[in-house]
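Summarise what follows for lecture notes:
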Amino acid sequence: MEHLAATANIRLGRWAEAEAHAHRSLSLLRPHLVRNRAMVSAHLAHAQLAQGALEEAVVAARTVPADIAYSSGRIGHLLDSFGNRIEAIAPGTAEARTWAQYTRDHRRTTG
């Protein structure tokens, strides 16, 4: 339910609420629910990015395992969208460069 609330708040542009729900969702997920954790982490990264927390957003996005990120359509799409958004709002920043390098490295190793 927390993840659904996070997703709904993202769609409404209520970023702080979305972030809070995503954190609660992550704390409630059992360790074996790796894909769910990846999806929630991608949503968390979006919520943090929308609030201007670039470093935290990149850290959250990087917790998504590369093998899941680039083998799953929905999660891959979320991370591609994250990359496009960080480049649009913070081009040339250390965080944008870190994310770009991270995606290049992981796509090369998983693709």
About this structure: The CA atoms of residues 76 and 85 lie 14 Å apart.
